[in-house]
Amino acid sequence: MADQSGSTGGAMGTQAPGGPGYGMQPPVGYGYPGGAPLPSGKATTSMVLGILGLVLIPIILPIIALCLGVSARRMADRGEGGGRGQATAGMVMGIIGCAFAALGFTVATIQAVAAV
To answer: What pTM was computed for the model?
Structure first.
C-alpha cells in the first residue's frame, strides 16, 4: 500500500535495504590497501646524519649518511620499507657534505703549500 508520498516503505524517511545512504560502509576489499609504509630507520638516520654532516662534522657524517641513504633507498625500491624521499635527501646531503669536505681539504692543502 502506498502512502501519500508515493513510497512503499511505510514510514517516511526509510529506505529499502541496500539503497544509498550516509551510514553505509564500502564492501570488504575495496579502498586503499593499508596506506603507505612507514619510513625505515635507515632512511631517517641517513637524513639526520646528512643534516648534521652539513652543519657539525663535515668529514665523517656525510659518508655515513651517503652509505645509509643508498641502502635505505634500495630497501624502499624492493618494498621492504618506506622513506624513499628521506633516503634520497640523506644521499643528496651526504654527497654535498663530501664535496664540501673535499673542497675544504683542497683549499687547506693549497694554503699550506703556498705558505711554505
So the answer is: 0.67
Query: Is 49 inside any structural domain?
Result: yes
The DSSP output letter for 107 is H
- Nearest in space to 94 (alpha carbons), one of 68, 75, 73: 68
For residues 41 and 87, the answer to whether their CB atoms sit within 8 Å is: no
In a domain, 73, yes or no: yes
For residue 67, the enclosing domain spans 41-115
Q: For residue range 38-95, what is the model confidence (pLDDT) as tens digits?
A: 888 999 999 999 999 999 988 899 999 999 999 999 999 998 888 999 999 999 999 9
Number of domains into which the chain is organized = 1
DSSP assignment letter at 81:
-
